[in-house]
Specification:
604 residues, Beta-Lactamase, Bact_response_regulator, HATPase_C_sf, 15 helices, Rossmann fold, disordered N terminus, 48% helix, alpha/beta
Length: 604
């Protein structure tokens, strides 16, 4: 059954629902409680029969002749009396005389069917022909029977009528059950609850009360409909139904009517919801002041519906738990994949570091020596120029020639070569240091690293430092007025923050003037844990991109002439922080961008 294409078969709202016919109309007064409960029906097996006949002898004949163990017979002397009775209770089947003093029998059939579409109507007449039979069916009668009555024939007609009613009621119950059990989430169940219940039990309003998972207190879960009802009254009625484990029905005429301030309500019924052996709440259906009380068959159908509803809610809860577990499993799987990839890279880096340690150390030492030699040569060149000037000042031809040659050797071109050599050596040493640092960080991912030394520290100074840094591509705004104490490794946290801030500041910007929008660094607490937030209003990421942003990836390096490079910055920061017991995640920011949220280990 397609839920989004279904429409309620009846209309919600308070007001008259039955049209009048032939001067017979449903009463607009109050209602009273049904005479029999579901338990009484189950124990007696009785079928309620309304006999409408203006002849007392005929009414008495049916009352006396039908077995009391099978039938409960209630008599009405005419159509108007029958309508008054139906305003107070419902019947399984009605027998009406085709001709009565206050109305024609066919008109009575029409009104009875309007008031209770579920009730089967049998027409009794002394003159039966084909046209009479067709007219009976046209007005909604189930069958007709000849007068005077053959009691055995009447009994069989009544039993067939009730069986037809029972079978007919199973169809909507089956459809509603299929639709209800096809809903996967609690939100879907609540969204379609009123519509589905309306298909089985006509009502003008409903309230669903479910227990709080922690306290067990019943709270409202139904959508608002503009009808203000006292919550305590709803809870009291629901608790009575739960305690009795059976429906509780009340009308405005009853002493225990709980909704006295509300003038538009005429009847209410509370069904208990049961999930296994534990109470699962209550569904309360309500009718307007001009509507009849709930019938026995509605008690039964509502009970069956609420059993399906409790099962649907329990299934939705299990689906929700299963979805949450599945998300946890997928997240754990993602973490394992990330850790495995980075651990593999770390092991490779550890092997490379071992193999390259001697060549790197030798090269680094040689370059450092070359840097020292460059400084010495530069000093020697400066002294040589001073000597040349001194020799030239003495005026002797031989000394002046020597001075000229010395100045030629130590000229500006030579000075530039010496300076370039020194700069190249320093850059090479710096490059080797960076390679050593990268290999060292990668080695930590393989587990081949010393244990992090934790300390209690205020993390806000690590953020304040960024306000003092110059020549950054983006401005930094720091919001950390109070101390935030965490139990972390200082060096690891500092290096990870550096990687995160650098990533945000160096991100390519396409919008003009975007470089003036600051990256915001904040410190505080999130659910009693020390936390750091790095918010960038320009970093707009899809959900999929947020989930894989900490994966090691190949990306285009626009600063290097559109070359490709391996970006390990965020992956290293993520893994180092995780090893420290911190939790790093990317969340949507209120600004429309993204926020890196870092939850740190606390003092506990």
């Amino acid at each position: 059954m397609e839920m989004n294409q279904r429409a309620p078969r009846r209309r919600h709202g308070f007001g008259p629902r039955h049209a009048s016919a032939a001067g017979i109309a449903p009463p607009r007064g109050g209602s009273s409680l049904p005479r029999r409960t579901v338990q009484e029906l189950a124990s007696s097996g009785g079928i309620s029969v309304l006999v409408i006949d203006d002849e007392p002898d005929m009414r008495e004949l049916i009352s006396v002749s039908l077995p009391s163990s099978e039938f409960e017979v209630v008599m009405a002397e005419g159509g108007r009396a029958a309508v008054a009775l139906l305003a107070t209770r419902r019947f399984d089947v009605a027998i009406t005389d085709l001709k009565s003093q206050d109305a024609h029998g066919m008109e009575t059939v029409s009104v009875l069917r309007q008031m209770d579409p579920d009730m089967e109507v049998i027409v009794a007449t002394g003159f039966v022909n084909a046209e009479t039979a067709r007219a009976c069916m046209r007005y909604g009668a189930y069958d007709y029977i000849r007068k005077p009555y053959d009691i055995e024939e009447l009994r069989h007609v009544l039993l067939r009528a009730v069986e037809k009613r029972r079978l007919r009621s199973l169809v909507p119950l089956y459809e509603v059950s299929c639709a209800l059990l096809s809903l996967r989430t609690r939100a879907e169940v609540l969204a379609h609850l009123g519509e589905l219940a309306l298909d089985l039990v006509p009502h003008q309003a409903f309230r669903l009360l479910l227990p709080d998972p922690d306290t067990g207190v019943l709270h409202l879960c139904s959508p608002p409909d503009g009808l203000e009802l006292p919550l305590e009254a709803l809870r009291g009625m629901a608790l009575r139904a739960i305690e009795r484990q059976e429906p509780v029905s009340v009308t405005h005429a009853a002493k225990e009517w709980p909704f006295s301030p509300v003038s538009r309500l005429g009847a209410a019924i509370a069904y208990p919801l049961q999930a296994g052996t534990a109470p699962a709440g209550s569904l309360i259906l309500m009718r307007g002041i001009a509507q009849p009380a709930f019938s026995v068959s509605e008690l039964q159908r509502g009970n069956l519906f609420c059993a399906q509803l409790a099962l649907a809610l329990e299934t939705a809860r299990l689906n929700s738990e299963m979805d949450a577990r599945l998300k946890e499993m997928l997240a754990a799987r993602g973490e394992m994949v990330k850790a495995e990839k980075l651990a593999t890279a770390g092991k490779l880096a550890a092997g490379l570091t071992h193999e390259l340690s001697n060549p790197l150390a030798f090269t680094k030492a040689s370059l450092q020596a070359l840097t020292g030699y460059s400084r010495n040569v530069k000093t020697l060149s400066s002294v040589t120029r001073d000597v040349a000037h001194e020799l030239a000042s003495r005026g002797e031809p031989r000394l002046m020639e020597l001075a000229r040659r010395l100045l030629a050797v130590t000229g500006s071109e030579a000075q530039a070569v010496i300076q370039d050599s020194a700069d190249a050596a320093e850059d090479a040493v710096d490059g080797i240091r960076r390679v050593e640092g990268l290999l060292s960080e990668l080695r930590t991912l393989s587990g081949d690293c010393p244990v992090v030394q934790f300390e209690q520290m205020d993390v806000t100074p690590l953020l304040q430092v960024w306000k003092e840094k110059e020549h950054l591509p983006r401005p930094i705004r720091v919001d950390a007025p109070n101390a935030v104490i965490a139990h972390v490794g200082r060096k690891e946290l500092e290096s990870s923050l550096t990687r995160l801030v650098t990533f945000l500041c160096e991100m390519p910007l396409e919008r003009p003037g975007a470089s003036r929008e600051p990256v915001v660094l904040r410190a505080g607490h999130d659910k009693d844990r020390p936390a750091i937030w790095l918010e960038d209003p320009l970093l707009v990421l899809s959900e999929e991109r947020r989930s894989d942003i900490f994966d090691a990836r190949i990306q285009e390096d626009s600063h290097g002439g559109r070359t490709m490079r391996l970006n390990l910055s965020l992956a290293l920061a993520y893994q180092i922080l995780r090893r420290m017991g911190a939790d790093l995640a990317v969340l949507p920011a209120p600004s429309g961008g993204s926020t890196f949220r870092l939850l740190l280990p606390g003092m506990g």
